[in-house]
Amino acid sequence: MAAELLAISSAFFLASSGVVARIALIKKGSPFTAFLTFASGTVLVWLLVLILGQELPNKTGALFFILRGIIDPGIVAFIIYVALRKIGVVFVTPIIAASPLVSTLLSVIFLKEILTLFIGFGTVLIILGAVLLSFRHTQNKAYLKYIIMVGVSSSIIGVSAFLTKFALNISDTPVSGLAFSFTTGIIVQILIITFLKKWKDLHMGWNNAKFFFLSGIFVSIGFVFGFLAFSKGDLIIVAPLVSMMPLFALILSHLILKKHETITKNIIIGTVFIVLGVAILAFV
Q: Computed over its alpha carbons, how large is the radius of gyration of the chain?
């Protein structure tokens, strides 16, 4: 049960990070500000490694943690921030929640975990939920573009979840492994920002920057809980539970972002479908 509780806690903090990031992006609308979030998160995770005296991963494990960091948060974070700014957290987080479709498939193929009828049914519910959430804007080419972007990111996140579990099987060092991933991620982000000459997008006052740093605190806590959950439980169980983010995002968005997030019947039904799918995947 420890792994399940850690995974649900991860979902809550990751959803909280998304909501705070949405507030920050309303105030300062650039996807490259994701760097502020993950840079602050990286500092916090390394502090945890030092304070708790965590063992560092072995060479092979470190390579997989680094590979994970290149794709997530290295590249994916910018894509997610673009989508958060354009279509909002109540659309983005449920589509990201479909990532267990990929991680489940990879876990069955490479980790020899068991795929049952109930797991298949749960994945179908998740797909239906994502379709319902995006249906409202499918005729709008601009929104459709961002929905596709998030869909691709969701698949990549599924791959990164698999890489996390694979790395932890090789070197069970969740906190220091996350530190390696985050460090690699911000190095990739620095290279992207430098290549595109977007450092000016990060210029802002403390009133705006504090929201990105707060998002970084939440995202680092969420990832720490997530990595610990992957360390203790099977990928086929943990990944869907981490994907309960839409439930928390819907609640938090309703409480905090009423002026900026429109919660429709499709969003509610779609979120319920996804959460039901996640529950079925998790408790079979």
A: 18
pLDDT band (50, 70, 90) for residue 134: low
Task: Mark residue 262 as left, alpha or beta (left: phi above 0; alpha: psi -120 to 50; beta: remaining).
Answer: beta
Per-residue tokens: 278: 């996640």
For residue 171, report the phi and psi dihedrals to the nearest 5 degrees: -145, 100
Distant-in-sequence contacts of 193-196, Cβ < 8 A, 24+ apart: 193/32, 193/35, 196/32
Average pLDDT over residues 81-104: 83
Domain range summary for the chain, segments of one domain joined by +: 2-283
CA distance 10 to 241: 9
Backbone CA torsion sign across 124, 126, 128, 130: negative
Handedness of CA 81, 213, 177, 249 (dihedral sign): negative
Provide the H-helix boundaries in the chain.
2-27, 34-52, 59-69, 76-87, 89-96, 100-110, 117-135, 141-170, 174-196, 206-232, 235-242, 245-256, 265-283
pTM: 0.89
Question: Average per-residue pLDDT in the chain?
Answer: 87
For 194-222, how does the pLDDT look when each residue is reduced to its tens digit (9 = 90+)? 999 999 988 888 888 899 999 999 999 99
CB 218 within 8 A of CB 20: yes
Peptide bond into 174 cis (omega under 30): no
